[in-house]
Structure formats: structure tokens, C-alpha cells
Amino acid sequence: MHIKEETIARLKQFDTGDKFSSLSVLPKASVLIPLFVKNGELCTLMTLRSQELKRSAGEVCFPGGKRDPSDRDDVDTALREAEEEIGLPPDDVQVVCRLVPIVSKGGLLVTPVVGFINESFCPHPNPAEVSAVFTVPLDFFTSDKDHYATQWADGMKGKQHSFYFVDPDSGSQYHIWGLTAMIAILVAALALRKKPEFDVAFNPEDPLSVFQQILNRRISKL
């Protein structure tokens, strides 16, 4: 089997489907983790948010955003936002799975949607929302080389993960941290079936159970 087919089969084991679609205690959002194979290795696309935005300006993230009333589900949200932000046509995404939603520091229920895109896709970033689009090898998020961990400033349990990535194409350095870094680590661990070289809050053999426990605790307090 090729890398793409092996990865799809692996990720489908962790698909939550519609399991959490009925949750309505928090406002919903979705992000798309666009995977593709480049030079024989799995990679993902990430974006740098525009400095003009009111929230999280200048931060690195995956394409995504809040649920729109017209969206049918979490997948719809992720695909719509990706098209609006980087010009990725929904029909060009092979959706593989939805992972357990994660509650953001802002109180959003964020569902990671993982899908494959063509390596040849050329992003057309919307300047009102995105100032840069860049490629990161997925293996980068399991390596300790450019990884840093600190305590959350707001007293949250566990470590806040961050990475400093230098884009070889542009020479630009990007700081990837917080929820985006956590999602990237999780997807990398699942897709590559590889334990990160640094301590993480989840068991790489059964990673989603921890996130579901955290989700249940957060919801029970509402």
C-alpha cells in the first residue's frame, strides 16, 4: 500500500463520525487538517492569520472557524472555511475522519477534520484573513528538536506545547503553539503511528480517550 492509503486506513480507526454532533452546550467550530504526500513524506498545510483580524491576529492555525447556520455539520464548516481562507475547493478534499472535539481557551467546541488534498494544490489566501500559507512535514510535530513546553498561563492542567518552524521555501519562522500545536501533535501521532519524543498528555496507543475524558469534564461543569 502507498503512504496515502496506509494513512487513510490508520486514521479511519479514530473517526468519531456523528458521535458528538448533538452536543450543543458550547458554540461550535471546526478546523481542517489538510494532508498530502510530498517527496515521500506526509505533510500538512498551515496558515498565518492576518494581523488585521480582531481575534488571534498573526497566529498560526489550520484553516477553520465558527459554525455557520447554513453548515450541515462539522465537516461542512471546515470545508467552507478552507475555501474562504485559502481557496481550497471542497470537492478537492478527501475527508478521512473527524476527531474528538477539543474545548478551546475561548470556550469553542473545536472539531478537527482530517482530509487529503492534492500535492499540486496552489493556495490562494484571502488577504483579509490569511497572510501566509506554508507546508510543514507531519513528522516535525513528533520531534523534540524545535519543541518547547511550558505551563499554561491561565492555570490549565498539562503542558502548553509550542514549536518554532522555519519554512525552507521562504525562510520565514513561524511559532506554532496552543490548540493548533496540540491538534498537530495528535494528528501526527495517529497518522504516523509514532510516539512523540516529548511528554504528551495522551497515550499514543489510545490517544482519543484522554481527549474525550477532558471533554466530558469540561461539559459537566457547564
Descriptive notes:
It is a single chain. The protein has 4 helices and 11 strands, in the order αββββαβββββββαα. It has 222 residues and is an alpha+beta fold. The strands form 2 sheets. Strands 1, 2, 3, 4, 5, 6, 7 and 8 form an 8-stranded mixed sheet that branches. The chain has a 3-stranded antiparallel sheet with strand order 9-10-11. The model has no long low-confidence stretch (mean pLDDT 88).
Key descriptive features of the protein:
single chain; 222 residues; alpha+beta; 8-stranded mixed sheet; 3-stranded antiparallel sheet; 4 helices; 11 strands; 30% strand
Give a short summary of the structure.
With 222 residues, the chain is α+β, with helices and mostly antiparallel strands. The protein has four helices and eleven strands, in the order αββββαβββββββαα.
Topology (SSEs and partners):
Elements: H1 3-12, E1 28-38, E2 41-49, E3 60-61, E4 64-66, H2 74-86, E5 94-98, E6 102-103, E7 109-116, E8 130-137, E9 147-151, E10 159-166, E11 173-177, H3 178-192, H4 207-220
Parallel strand pairs: 1-7
Antiparallel strand pairs: 1-2, 1-4, 2-3, 2-8, 5-7, 6-7, 9-10, 10-11
Fraction of residues in helix: 10-25%
Number of strands: 11
Please summarize the sheet with the most strands. 8 strands, mixed
Protein structure class: alpha+beta
Based on Cα principal axes, name the global outline. Answer: globular
**Rg, Cα atoms, Å:** 16 Å
Rounded average pLDDT:
88
Along the chain, the helix and strand elements come as HEEEEHEEEEEEEHH
The percent range for strand residues is: 25-35%
Provide the low-confidence segments as ranges: none
Number of H- or I-type helical stretches: 4
Distance between the termini: 46 Å
